[in-house]
Amino acid sequence: MNIINKKLIALSFAAASVMGASAQEAATGYFMENYNMKWQMNPAFGNRNGYVGLPGLGNLNVGVNANISPTDLIYTSGNKTVLFTNPNISAQEVLGNLKDVNRISENVGVGVIQVGFKGFGGYNNIAINVKENASFALPKSIFSLLKEGIGNKHYDIKDLNVKAAAYAEIALNHSRDIKQVPGLRAGVSLKFLLPVGFAEANFNELDLILGDNNWQAKANANLRIGLGGIKYDTKENDRTHNKYVSGVNTDDLKVGVNGFGFGVDLGASYKWQDFDFSLAFTDLGVLSFNSVQEASTNGTKSFETADHVIGIGDHGDSWDKLVDDLSPLYELHDNGDIGHTSMALLGKMRAGVDYTFPLYKKLHFGLMNTTSLSSMFPSTEFRLSANVEPVKGVAVSVSGAAGTYGANYGFLLSLGNKGFNFLLGMDYAALKLDKNSYPLTSNFDVHMGINFPF
């Protein structure tokens, strides 16, 4: 692999080693009668009973979402499984399957403490959660470069981003009926956030014109890591004598609170005849991290040469000179501790309508839209669900969804009313594997909870 590809991959995925995920609740259960955690999707929702969650297992969520499939990068050639870079796979086939911006996010969340109870004129929830969130966006142009290599072509690679964060959350929720407006219910959740760490890598600009007789290139990139005790290792280029970041030093790593943050959820619902309308805005807030280490090109670096043409068998000084000339494009400078850095939470808007079937009141149908409020990773999804609780304590919901991450289906099962409740479900249940057990779908999640209602 040539020097550009190596450094490009290294910078693109530098932050991926500390990727976490963004916790999400089971969207299939948004309209379910016996789902204690739906208040985290809309803080206006209360529960019919109080409950205590089993520490660590009261509310567990794991998921992956992407608008790119593993089969877009992994192919079969001659009865062998190969990567998209294999010469037997055409560039036209690979690039034809990719989006202009390919987005991937990972989702994990653990409920450490979950408590719900009636009081103060409404319903209340107290929760302590551990959350991680990570997302990255890869433009099609980077795959074009990796697939086609150095050739007579213009590669405009920009807005290649990776972001990851981990934090603890203390959430206090209250919801109540608004007596002055029959049918209206409102709720709010206040969230006190304790950041642990974050990482982000950004290619603000990487413009490559690789001609037969001339090369032109511009690069503007930075890497930031906010984690106690983290520093960068540096090396000196033996030929240019420039110092550059060569890795991350974790010898003095201190895992703990590294900043402060605050968030709020706002929600409302309105019941009219057999319809129940709802609207919520969640995770409106910001995380502020201390002790952030930055590595950067420190602005846009440019390179232009007509001396790069190296014939077959050429080596030595010609190649070394080319590597030295290109070094400002990929060698990041250690800017040290830049102090505080803030990042917005991954806010969401949810709007829903629930319809109770008049001939069988225990059956109702719901339609919900979930839209990300993140400008960096925008997404939207419509989910239609059928919900039934034939006997109290046994509730089932099934759903179908379509949106940014394709079409899928989900289910949620809630067993138990007073004393014990077990919840298990998936929003993206269509997991397919090939003959070698490689996943063929890029959307997958699991939601589980063990609670003790009272």
How are the SSEs placed, and which strands pair?
Elements: H1 3-12, E1 51-53, E2 60-66, E3 74-77, E4 80-83, H2 91-97, E5 101-119, E6 122-139, H3 140-148, E7 153-157, E8 160-177, E9 184-210, E10 215-227, E11 231-236, E12 243-249, E13 259-272, E14 275-289, E15 292-296, E16 301-305, H4 317-330, E17 333-337, E18 341-344, E19 348-356, E20 363-372, E21 380-391, E22 394-403, E23 406-415, E24 421-426, E25 444-453
Antiparallel strand pairs: 1-5, 1-25, 2-5, 2-25, 3-4, 5-6, 6-8, 7-9, 8-9, 9-10, 9-13, 10-15, 10-16, 11-12, 13-14, 14-18, 14-19, 15-17, 19-20, 20-21, 21-22, 22-23, 23-24, 24-25
How would you describe this structure in keywords?
single chain, 454 residues, mainly beta, 21-stranded antiparallel β-sheet, two-stranded antiparallel sheet, 4 helices, 25 strands, 9% helix, disordered N terminus
Protein described:
With 454 residues, this protein is mainly beta. 9% of the residues lie in helices and 54% in strands. The protein is built from four helices and 25 strands. The chain has a 21-stranded antiparallel sheet that branches. A two-stranded antiparallel sheet has the order 3-4. It has a two-stranded antiparallel sheet with strand order 11-12. It is globular, with a radius of gyration of 25 Å. Residues 1-23 and 309-316 have low confidence and may be disordered.
Describe the main β-sheet briefly.
Answer: 21 strands, antiparallel
- Amino-to-carboxy terminus distance: 62 Å
Structural class: mainly beta
Q: DSSP strand (E) fraction?
A: over 45%
> Gyration radius, to the nearest Å?
25 Å
Q: Tally the helices.
A: 4
Poorly predicted residue ranges: 1-23, 309-316
For the secondary structure, the number of strands is 25
Shape: globular
Order of helices and strands: HEEEEHEEHEEEEEEEEEEHEEEEEEEEE
Which range best describes the helical content: under 10%, 10-25%, 25-40%, 40-55%, 55-70% or over 70%? Answer: under 10%
Mean pLDDT: 85
